[in-house]
Every structure is written in C-alpha cells, then in structure tokens.
C-alpha cells in the first residue's frame, strides 16, 4: 500500500530496514497491542501524520543507468541462435550430397568429381565451427570428471568426423560415411541447446534492477546551495537534498525536514512512514510529499540495497549449480556407449572379423548419441513455457518448472499479492445513515490526490452515492482535511483531528485498531458523526487460491512487513494458520530457510524488492508480474497478472511437463538401450545385424516421437478460473 495521509497515522508498522537501526518514531498516541509468540513479529501501531497536499509522482525514470554489465548472457544465447541458422544452411548441401543419405532415400547423385568433396569440406567446417561449443564443453566435463551431454555429443561427432574422412579417403569401409549424420547431429544439438539456453535464461538483471532503484543524480548540499553529483561520489557525512517525489540516493539520517517516505519497495511496509529529524532513511526509498535533508551514513556496499543485492546474488549462484536430469542421463549413456563399443570391438575381433569390429564399434558410438535426448527436455520446456505464457505464466527457469511439482509449502507475501496493495474503505460506523457519512467524507476529500482520499471517493462511487459539491478545501499536516459541504464544515482525519476538537473516538475504534486498520473520523461542525475503516483489501481470488492449495495438501504461509494485528486479520480472512509479521528484508530469506530446514520444499510468491532475496532463496520463486523488475528478475516463474490463483496453474504445468519430460527421456534413452546392442551385433548369431541406415532412420523417428509428444502440452488449460 503506497500512500500518505494528512489524516494522521492510526495504525502502521515500523520495520527495521536492512542495515538500518530501528527508527525512533514520534507516536501520535494510538497504540494497539501486538501479538506474542512470533519471533518475527514487531508491533508498532503508531499514528501517521499525513499531509496530502500536492505530491509528486513516485516513479522515477532510470534510463540513464548503464545495464550493460549482464549483456553477456543475452549475447551467448544470440550466438547460439546465429550459429544454429548458419549451420542449418551449411548442413543442407552436406546432407544432400552425402552418398549414404542418397542411398537411404534412393536418389542418384550426379557423376561430378567435385561433388564428392562437398560433404567432406563443408562437414569439416561444421565439425570445427558448429561443433566447437560441444567440444569445449566436453573438455570441461572431462576436467570436472563429470561426463554429461556435452561429452556424449562430442564423442559422437568426433567419431563420425574421423570415420567419415576415413571412408572418404578409402581408409575405412564406405559404410562409415557419416557426413550427413554429423551434419544433422550438430544442427539438432545446436537447436536443442539454443532452446534450452533461452528457456533457462535465469537472468542476473535482478541486480541491474536493484541498481535502478537509485537515482541517476543526487543533490549534495554545498554551502548555501546544492551541486548535482552521482550517488557514487557521495561520502559518509555528506548532506543531500531529497525533493518531494525524489529517491533517497544513499542510506542516511534525516537532519532537516519531515516527510512520508514510501519504503514499500524495500521493507514491504504497506503504508508510508513518517520520517523526520533523527530518523533513518534507506537508499532507493521515496520522499513523497515534502523535501528532506539527509546526512549520508552508508554508501556503496554498506547500504541496505547493496545488502539485498548480495543476498539475491548469493541465492541465485547457489541455485544455478543444480544437476540437470538430462545431463545425468547423458552421463550414464556415455559410459554405456563407451562400454558397448569396447565390448563390440573385442567380441567381433575375437570371432575373427576385425574389419567388422571397426565398423560395428564406430556405428555404436555414433548411434549412441541420442538426437532425441538432446531435445527431450528443451522441447518440453520450450512448449510448456510458450503454453504458460498464453495462460499468464512466464517460466524463466527450467529448474523452477521441474521443482514446482514437489512444492509442499507456498509462502505468500501479503501486500500486493494476497491483498490489493492499496487502501479500501472496508467499513463505516455512523450515528445514522452510513451512506450519508461516506458521501460527506468523499465530498471533503474530492480535491485531494492522496491514496486514502482516492479510496474514500472510490468507495462512494462504488456504492453509487450522490456526492455533494465542496468548497474551501484545506489540509493540515497531522490533522486532516476540511471543506464546506452544504453549508456545514466537514472534516476528515485521525487522532490529531479529534484532539484539536477535544472529541473522543468512536467505540468501534479499538476493535478496528486491533485488526490493524486505518481509522479516520468524520466531523460535521466539530461533532463526530462517524468513522471509516480503511485497510488493504483482500483479493477474492486469494481466498480461492488458498483454499485450492490447501485442498491439494499444500501448506499456505503468509509473510509481511506489516504488524501482527494486520497480518492476523488478513490471515483469518483467508484461513491461513501460519504467518510471519513485521519481517525485515533480510529476514524474509531467513524465513524461507527456516521453512526449508523443516524439510519443506518452498515456493515464494512476492512482488517487491524486499521479496527478491526470498524469491531467489526459495526452491521456486514466483513473482507477481505487476511487481518490481527486481522481484521479477529474481524469480524463476512470473505471473503476468496479479491473480494468485495462477500459482495453481504453475503446479498443473509443472506436473504435466514433468510427465512429458519423463516420457521423452524414457523414449530417447530407451531407443539407445535398444539400438546400441542391435548395432553392436548382439543378434548376429541368429543372422541379424542392425544396418547403419536403419539405425539412422530409427534415430530420426525417435526425435519425431519426442517432438510430437511434447506438442501434446499445448492442450493444457492454464486459465485460473478453470482451476
């Protein structure tokens, strides 16, 4: 909830931000009792001083930031894409002019001497250029002593390359002319790796997004005026001017001025907090309504923002080392192929056929590289992510997609995820007509642009109430707003307004305060005629999402920077039994770790900068698409809408895609387990040896089957309303 109020703060949370000491708030006098027992809960229901005269927009452009530091990843994907298309073009003549391919399809090559060199020459280009990523990857796997997909591919293309030159030069049997197979193998594997890298692009742009929270320039106080400098040039002790709507350039302490600071992007606090002399402020937060002079207390790596950045980087690095299922299968197949080739060579030599031993062993090594295995998972992920995107779910990380099916705990951030993230009038308490009191309040607030004022006006509009015209609008910091409506002076505000008139609050206020709500009283000619309850409204979709997840046996946990009372009220409305309240940014990641230490597989759903470390630390990070760039970049899954029911779509997608992955892997590996022994000649005693041409056709059919099976994912319905 982002907003400030002229009305006086009635119930809010004071949250320690990362690297900052606890703020010493001046309380307006209304304190609600906090709950006990939750080590994360911090209770502070201090009053907001609200002055909602004209304020500047919160958003700031960051086009000036240089985000080129992580461009290498995009360049790497682009290089694979470019290499694939080049090799595809080169592969066409290699395949068409290959004698074995012509024999398989039954067409005759022209009798031109130069044509016999097309496939060898271009095939060599493909091996050296197109095969280089796999050859270098194989070297890395050998050094790490962890054979995987790269080594299996490198083995096949190297054997095919050497054997093909041997056949071309007449040194080996003509059956070993594998130029067409080499070309297809390289092209298909490049396609698979391009698709894989695109789907796996777990970008480090989260770190760029964190940097983008800082302003491009800072106004350093120099003598009687100010000088514009880069935030990087600031030093501890400098005084900076933060204008209304501007971002704080570095961690510091207010030395002059008073303003409501929107810290929601850093702390998760759903309402802005009042910051005045002596209070700490954090880099990246926004002074919304007044100017501040801030003395810098931390710069660079010592700031809270840098601390969050380190948490995100550490969590992303730790999760990126996970072993991939296809590589494990490829590792086993590597040893299977190598062992089969060795046994084949020994057996055929032992029975007196050394020439056949060479042919059979080489055939085994070439056939052992599964085209289908190289595409089995990338194709499923590519189609699954495409299908998901049409359903409002963007899958950035393959591992997140695979893991989601095993999730048994979903940790939801409250503000902006389970709730709307903006104030809403949830109740009216009046002496007489509730609608009349709301209409008067809306009339008085009509000229204000403040979020609470807009909430009151919107509520009156939702109820289709006739709102009378108002004149003589005024606002007073820490008091409220006033206007003349139908000849009466109507005032709307918090504790300061009541105190100025010596009017007691309404009896319902204690109950509302215990629920963490904002309370505004409505006075007509100095007499309190009613009160408004404003709170961050719970989404109806959230109730359905929580209920459906619990029905699946998944525990739903809520985490928030808000106070215990606010969290308890929202949790009760949603039927959530476990929640963390008053959680600081670094503690959100710790809360995820706590759940994981209980043996739980955790999916974290959030939308703010303060959620980024937790999103990256969780087994699966799910960002609400309407959230910040850093939250989106830190997550493996992004919900394009703010509908929490889409989490169920991710679970359905994960389970369906996992089934397809298993089916494709079994088909791809199963082809090898069957074809390799046949190519080795295990049935030779009964007169059957798998011809190379048949093995090649079966290899292609295996790839087609895998592709068609993956296409079935397109039928999956991921619309939230159907779940």
Describe the protein.
- The protein is α+β, with helices and mostly antiparallel strands.
- It is built from 25 helices and 23 strands.
- It has a 7-stranded mixed beta sheet with strand order 11-23-22-21-12-19-20, sandwiched between helices.
- A hairpin with a 2-residue loop joins strand 1 and strand 2.
- Helix 3 runs antiparallel to helix 5, helix 3 (118-130) runs parallel beside helix 6 (179-199) and helix 4 (132-144) crosses helix 5.
- Mean pLDDT is 76; it is low at 1-73, 199-207 and 315-323.
Blueprint of the fold:
Blueprint: H1 71-96, H2 99-105, H3 118-130, H4 132-144, H5 149-168, H6 179-199, H7 205-212, E1 218-222, E2 225-229, E3 239-242, E4 246-247, E5 251-256, E6 259-262, H8 264-267, E7 273-275, E8 280-281, E9 286-287, E10 292-298, H9 304-319, H10 325-350, H11 354-367, H12 371-390, E11 393-395, H13 398-403, E12 409-413, H14 414-418, E13 419-430, H15 434-445, H16 451-462, E14 470-476, E15 480-485, E16 488-493, H17 495-501, H18 509-514, E17 518-524, E18 527-538, H19 540-551, E19 555-559, H20 564-574, E20 578-580, H21 585-597, E21 602-606, H22 612-617, E22 620-624, H23 629-634, E23 637-639, H24 646-680, H25 692-711
Helix pairs in contact: 1-3, 1-6, 3-5, 3-6, 4-5, 5-6, 5-10, 5-11, 6-12, 7-9, 10-11, 10-24, 11-24, 12-24, 12-25, 15-16, 24-25
């Amino acid at each position: 909830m982002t907003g400030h109020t002229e009305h006086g703060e009635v119930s809010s949370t004071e949250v320690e931000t990362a690297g900052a000491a606890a703020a010493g708030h001046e309380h307006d006098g209304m304190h609600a009792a906090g709950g006990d027992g939750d080590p994360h809960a911090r209770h502070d229901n201090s009053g907001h001083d609200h002055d909602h005269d004209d304020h500047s927009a919160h958003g700031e452009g960051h086009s000036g930031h240089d985000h080129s530091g992580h461009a290498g990843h995009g360049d790497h994907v682009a290089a694979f894409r470019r290499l694939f298309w080049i090799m595809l073009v080169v592969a066409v003549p290699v395949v068409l002019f290959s004698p074995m391919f012509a024999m398989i399809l039954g067409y005759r090559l022209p009798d031109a001497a130069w044509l016999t060199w097309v496939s060898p020459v271009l095939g060599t280009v493909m091996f050296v250029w197109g095969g280089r990523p796999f050859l270098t990857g194989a070297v890395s796997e050998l050094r790490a002593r962890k054979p995987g997909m790269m080594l299996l591919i490198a083995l096949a293309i190297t054997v095919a390359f050497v054997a093909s030159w041997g056949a071309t030069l007449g040194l080996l049997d003509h059956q070993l002319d594998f130029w067409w197979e080499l070309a297809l193998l390289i092209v298909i594997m490049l396609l698979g790796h391009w698709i894989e890298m695109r789907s796996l692009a777990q970008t480090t742009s989260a770190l760029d997004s964190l940097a983008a929270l800082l302003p491009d320039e800072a106004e350093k106080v120099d003598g009687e005026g100010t000088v514009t400098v880069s935030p990087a040039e600031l030093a501890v002790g400098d005084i900076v001017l933060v204008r209304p709507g501007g971002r704080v350039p570095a961690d510091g302490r207010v030395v002059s001025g008073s303003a409501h600071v929107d810290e929601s992007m850093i702390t998760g606090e759903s309402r802005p907090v009042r910051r005045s002399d002596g209070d700490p402020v954090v880099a990246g937060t926004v002074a919304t309504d007044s100017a501040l002079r801030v003395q810098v207390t931390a710069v660079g790596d010592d700031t809270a923002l840098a601390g969050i950045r380190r948490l995100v980087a550490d969590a992303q690095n730790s999760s990126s080392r996970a072993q991939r299922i296809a590589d494990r299968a490829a590792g086993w197949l590597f040893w299977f192929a190598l062992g089969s080739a060795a046994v084949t060579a020994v057996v055929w030599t032992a029975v007196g056929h050394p020439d056949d031993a060479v042919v059979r062993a080489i055939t085994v090594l070439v056939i052992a590289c599964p085209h289908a295995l190289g595409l089995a998972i990338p194709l499923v992920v590519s189609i699954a992510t495409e299908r998901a995107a049409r359903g409002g779910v963007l899958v950035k990380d393959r591992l997140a997609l695979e893991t989601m099916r095993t999730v048994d705990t979903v940790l939801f951030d409250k503000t902006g995820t389970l709730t709307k993230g903006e104030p809403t009038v949830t109740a009216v308490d009046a002496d007489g007509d509730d609608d009349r009191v709301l209409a008067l309040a809306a009339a008085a607030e009509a000229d204000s642009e403040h979020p609470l004022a807009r909430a009151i006006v919107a509520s009156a509009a939702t109820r289709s109430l006739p709102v009378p015209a108002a004149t003589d609008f005024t606002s007073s910091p820490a008091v409220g707003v006033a206007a003349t409506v139908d000849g009466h002076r109507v005032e709307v505000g918090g504790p300061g307004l009541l105190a100025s008139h010596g009017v007691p609050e309404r009896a319902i206020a204690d109950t509302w305060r215990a629920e963490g709500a904002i309370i505004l009283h409505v006075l007509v000619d100095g007499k309190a005629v009613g009160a408004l309850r404003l709170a961050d409204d719970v989404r109806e979709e959230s109730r359905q999402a929580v209920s459906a997840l619990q029905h699946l046996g998944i525990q739903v946990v809520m985490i928030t920077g808000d106070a215990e009372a606010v969290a308890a009220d929202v949790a009760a409305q949603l039927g959530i039994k476990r929640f963390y309240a008053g959680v600081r940014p670094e503690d959100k990641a710790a809360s995820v770790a706590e759940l994981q230490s209980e043996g739980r597989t955790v999916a974290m759903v959030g939308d703010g900068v303060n959620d980024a470390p937790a999103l990256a630390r969780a087994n699966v990070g799910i960002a609400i698409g309407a959230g910040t760039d850093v939250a989106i970049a830190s997550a493996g899954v992004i919900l394009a809408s703010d509908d929490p029911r889409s989490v169920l779509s991710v679970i359905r997608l994960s389970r369906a895609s996992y089934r397809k992955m298993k089916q494709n892997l079994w088909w791809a590996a199963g082809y090898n387990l069957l074809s390799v022994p046949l190519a080795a000649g295990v049935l030779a005693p009964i007169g059957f040896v798998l011809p190379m041409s048949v093995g090649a056709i079966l290899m292609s059919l295996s790839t087609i089957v895998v592709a068609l099976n993956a296409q079935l994912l397109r039928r999956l319905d991921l619309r939230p309303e159907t779940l």
